[in-house]
Target: Glucokinase
Amino acid sequence: MGLTIGVDIGGTKIAAGVVDEEGSILETSKVSTPPTPEGVVDAIADAVRKVSTGHDVEAVGIGAAGYVDDKRATVLFAPNINWRHEALKDKVEQRVGLPVVVENDANAAAWGEYRFGAGAGHDDVVCITLGTGLGGGIIIGGKLHRGRFGVAAEFGHIRVVPDGLLCGCGSQGCWEQYASGRALVRYAKQRAAATPENAEILLGLGDGTAENIEGKHISDAARQGDPVAIDSFRELARWAGAGLADLASLFDPSAFIVGGGVSDEGDLVLEPIRKSFRRWLVGNQWRPHAQVLAAQLGGKAGLVGAADLARQG
Amino acid sequence: MGLTIGVDIGGTKIAAGVVDEEGSILETSKVSTPPTPEGVVDAIADAVRKVSTGHDVEAVGIGAAGYVDDKRATVLFAPNINWRHEALKDKVEQRVGLPVVVENDANAAAWGEYRFGAGAGHDDVVCITLGTGLGGGIIIGGKLHRGRFGVAAEFGHIRVVPDGLLCGCGSQGCWEQYASGRALVRYAKQRAAATPENAEILLGLGDGTAENIEGKHISDAARQGDPVAIDSFRELARWAGAGLADLASLFDPSAFIVGGGVSDEGDLVLEPIRKSFRRWLVGNQWRPHAQVLAAQLGGKAGLVGAADLARQG
Amino acid sequence: MGLTIGVDIGGTKIAAGVVDEEGSILETSKVSTPPTPEGVVDAIADAVRKVSTGHDVEAVGIGAAGYVDDKRATVLFAPNINWRHEALKDKVEQRVGLPVVVENDANAAAWGEYRFGAGAGHDDVVCITLGTGLGGGIIIGGKLHRGRFGVAAEFGHIRVVPDGLLCGCGSQGCWEQYASGRALVRYAKQRAAATPENAEILLGLGDGTAENIEGKHISDAARQGDPVAIDSFRELARWAGAGLADLASLFDPSAFIVGGGVSDEGDLVLEPIRKSFRRWLVGNQWRPHAQVLAAQLGGKAGLVGAADLARQG
Amino acid sequence: MGLTIGVDIGGTKIAAGVVDEEGSILETSKVSTPPTPEGVVDAIADAVRKVSTGHDVEAVGIGAAGYVDDKRATVLFAPNINWRHEALKDKVEQRVGLPVVVENDANAAAWGEYRFGAGAGHDDVVCITLGTGLGGGIIIGGKLHRGRFGVAAEFGHIRVVPDGLLCGCGSQGCWEQYASGRALVRYAKQRAAATPENAEILLGLGDGTAENIEGKHISDAARQGDPVAIDSFRELARWAGAGLADLASLFDPSAFIVGGGVSDEGDLVLEPIRKSFRRWLVGNQWRPHAQVLAAQLGGKAGLVGAADLARQG
Model:
């Protein structure tokens, strides 16, 4: 099979792109995400038609937040778009006249990294995506592990603190409340409010108040040596690394890939995650250690991965 | 291939048995577990020779506690026997003249249940063994998931309570400190000491002191309605079920199998585990639920599973 | 001194009452709580003038949520009304021409119970108020313990779960997030959403949805045997009793008094709190146990206590 | 009253000293702690007789680990010596012919610091003693707060981690498991085992193994910049400071005094404790902050405090 289209449905934008067999994007198109389920289907169809003009395209892969069923056809439940048992595959196929595969967005991103990014040379890979929340994907023996019902690798919602923070999923103490971009901002706000004398650089990058600290301030401040910003990254890494150690006990991959916006900071966040991972890895002197790698495809991983999954059929 | 031998190395006994293709045990032999690594190898060889007399045996599978490498040949580390990089496969092959496969004991038990026990009809199964500690095994797509380095499915040591109970592995807050036979006894002792008026039946089954409560007293007392015994099972189930919910988020199997000595109590422990599982399953109204099944092979699962893994080669 | 006035500033109502030396309320008046600090001062003055007509009143005691300074004059900080270093004593004295004492509302309620309610016969008493949040008051040797800066007995904000639930105070894991009326409702909602089959009575008392469960439904459902409602009270009691055990380790009073709206349910909530208290009381077989008593004055404790504190000068 | 004798009963030594009204020790005597309760009484009597020779002594104060009753006469329960309802006051009085007062050892030490050490100028003081375990004492309005039954200020056993580390008291998650000399050593051992590359100095001070690290190595290594040693102190301080913040919410003293062997390290441990205290102090921008002071009397605080309590009668 030659060219396929990958579609990445985000909270604000829907991106579509024509992708070749090497994972290169030949052409892309972006539209705003409509507020209704039907609008989203229309927007996907429009984007696919627009981007495919002039290309000989054979299939479409869609990455969507939420639970996707084991047939890769229906979104059972999506937290941000109002999808409940949405037959996305059928609806889009009817409009674009191409075979469609639907996949969880974090699974698609993991597949993209596995195939064309940081996963080169590994067959057993676990990816975590530290974005606003925490998503994940699992590759075992070169195959995406979807689970019996299609909803495996929901890493963000394993419980790491009993009776811990409330999560949007209705549970408490979920990993993504402690290891995600949102968590990083909370760490910085709490610390800056309690000890502003240690957050002068950080507070100076915004309006001077703890409550208006933003993610990009924290990275900048950390690079400039701000103690609260550095400590906030360390706290994030403490939780991220401890969770990876648990995943090593469960899956035993040869490599972890850490992606998502938070990981764009590179070693600022990767190095403390590696330290925390070694610290908490059970039996760490008796076993080979998985590598902890930075993702390489940035925000394109999901689109590229979805396109490649469509190619695989 | 016809008959194979399964060997189960326990803390006090080494059991060997001749197993046929249907998982039936034709003959068994037991010896005490010697205290030295070399002694254990000798004992295994003796048991294999003894039990194989008169049978046309083609291979040997050994289930051993600890980390077994990805070649299924060397025990990297065993907590109870003093094995460090023990080349068990080679040593036993030299003495018995048959091909040998070494496998983690909980993996072997999981495989046994998958093939000949509660796993019938399922291709994606996660097993937990609630014995003295907590072990696990994973079957994905009908294959045992060993991980890249052979040490996957070490469920007992994922962290469920940050800064929690010390574990023999050197870490803190490991799942097996909260969901295992040892945990059950601790729950009962603590509760009986604090509120003996609620533990009259339980205390009456032993010498009357909380510190000498044993596991079998707790089951008996629970069946007789002892509030502390019932509450102790409930506490165990609270942690076991919550952990299964996390495993569902990670692996998404079609069934969980709960084995080990604790699970011999049947619905006394299975029902509260199922309740806790549903309580903590993220998105439980939007997804198909895995079944939570009682193991069927009891203490023979490891031996039968090891024999079958040897047959598969 | 003869009659004094007690004022209780609540989130929705301000109540004033004339109280005699036996703690009896001779006359009361209620107004809505105005939205601005200045409006609240006016409303207090109006209520005091109104209720004092025809009575020979000698002083005014005001119970206010928030940190009250050690001179009992200034509210340093109030969470619900926008008070920051509000000189409440001076402002009210200027308008009503009577000596004024300001006290934290939970301290006032504790004093009321100590003097005229459940505290009879005890000199060392710790009170907790399980209302929307969790407040407290301490009497040591017959005197209210205010602390060096006036802000002692802020029980609701001791940390009982590291990395736990966010609290309005900016911290995490505060006791009032686990033991309060708000916590009770959260427990019921979470459990009813996860296992509606165990909440049929509870859901039937409202509109059938977990998210609209109210506190009064939970009490009614618990009395009718609803498993989720009973379990929700038990969870509340688990945290309340464990906290009382900690307070016993710290203060060692002869009695605890449990007040606030939640405690109106009497033994439905008091009995499980007592059990949990005994369960967690360190060294419980080697020491005398404090009693755990239900408050007797209901919602009037704060008003009566504030009036009595004004009398004491 | 002029001279009194203070007795400090430790796990290995019993120390007696003649103390004047200014808290100066005029003469001391030490003996080994006998293994039996009766032996301890004899040893106390011997030490008192020996040290009092040539001094006009009027009373004896004894500091003992454990629960001392409200009459300051009987040790209800001692964890290390086999005392159960031991009438220590009567037994010692009969042998030495002087009035005797028995006090909990941490209370005695707190009183010593309050009267003659770091407490100068404060009337409301909370002391914590970071020794092997964690003890405490409370002074309110210039008086020792003993509680209704004599067992107040058992700080070491408030629960700071639900389902946390086992404690010798039978409970779990007690503060002294996270903030004490024993905890410090555990932190260092765990970290050195997991990441020996960060503990080269620390490991070099002992025999090179993590399991044989001792407390004094950690201080020395921290001063030399060893990352694991510094991080271990920081972890201790994290828990100590968070606990002091809770005690501020409860007692609201004007000063905390931190004593015990761990505090001998001075600002190495005090500064991070102060930082953690400010970090966790609820409403820290709205309230006056208690000072966090280093104890001044070192290991003599208990003896001097016990002597002074005897003087007060």
Observations:
- The longest helix of chain A spans residues 227-251.
- Chain A is about 35% helix and 20% strand.
- The radius of gyration of chain A is 20 Å.
